[in-house]
Design brief:
Layout (H helix, E strand, L loop, with lengths): L2 H4 L13 E6 L14 H16 L3 E6 L2 H4 L3 H4 L4 H25 L4 E5 L8 E2 L2 H9 L3 E5 L9 H12 L3 E6 L21 E3 H7 L6 H9 L4 E5 L5 H6 L6 E4 L6
Parallel strand pairs: 1-2, 1-6, 2-5, 3-4, 3-5, 6-8, 7-9
Antiparallel strand pairs: 8-9
């Protein structure tokens, strides 16, 4: 166990350290052992962690990516117009959002899917005030469809939605990676975890936290990001109890 894992971050004495969060799930976090698609066991594990978060009294919104589905059609998308490919990705996030909604409701959690692209038969349109009202009522809100615009990633969606709803932190879930590493572990097996870093340092060093647009948006608005391994089902609970897990990305060293 690293010193970062055992460090305590001050939080309110009468409850969780965070009251409203955005959980960013990559599509790959839903893969499990599959090459593409959705692993039912993995999505059930995600639902368990989110349900526990709700029971702690934390308001949680989820932004989900689509790498698990879109990689399955990557060959067909190669050479495609970028806008068209991005719209395909937005539709794929709706598929993931509905899968997460189904798993959460089976776990007894009241859930709403809001989509930035019109698909009213299965999802509400994204309306900021309605989303905040759902959160206040203890419902989990899943934001699908990205920002509704091509050329923006779901990382940027997470940053944008977090700021819009007044979230205190983005929890950036990674698949089998403990946090932000100083080098690419696929190239260098000696890559080490960085327990704390500023947004600017992450941008300057080209570290794989979020895309640059999302990182800049978080930096300009003093929004911290906690990058952690979703495979450890105790990690979200640790974060909400005020313990340092993975990597904290914040505007200044002092905030960390």
């Amino acid at each position: 166990m690293s010193s970062a894992d055992s460090e305590i971050v001050p939080g309110p004495a009468d409850g969780p350290a965070l009251r409203r969060i955005v959980l960013k799930l990559s599509g790959e976090a839903l893969l499990g052992e599959r090459q593409y698609g959705i692993d039912p066991e993995r999505i059930t594990a995600v639902a368990r962690q989110v349900a526990e978060t709700v029971r702690l009294g934390v308001e949680i919104a989820i932004v989900v990516g689509a790498g698990n589905i879109f990689r399955g059609v990557a060959g067909a998308a190669r050479g495609m117009d970028r806008s068209t490919a991005d719209y395909m990705g937005m539709i794929a996030t709706v598929l993931n959002a509905l899968s997460i909604q189904d798993a959460l409701e089976k776990a007894g959690v009241s859930t709403r899917v809001q989509s930035a692209i019109a698909i009213q038969e299965v999802a509400e349109p994204y309306i900021r005030r309605r989303a905040m009202r759902h959160l206040e009522k203890g419902r989990v809100v899943i934001f699908a469809g990205g920002t509704g615009n091509p050329f923006f990633t779901t990382d940027t969606t997470a940053a944008l939605r977090a700021l819009e709803i007044g979230a205190e932190c983005i929890l950036m879930a990674k698949n089998a990676v403990e946090g932000v590493l100083d080098r690419d572990p696929r190239v260098d097996p000696d890559a080490r975890l960085i327990p704390r870093i500023t947004h600017m340092e992450a941008i300057e060093r080209g570290l794989k936290v979020m895309d640059t647009t999302a990182l800049t948006l978080c930096m300009d608005n003093d929004l911290p990001i906690m990058v952690f391994n979703m495979a450890d089902e105790s990690n979200i609970r640790k974060i909400l109890s005020g313990r340092r897990v993975g990597t904290l990305v914040a505007t200044t060293k002092e905030e960390q």
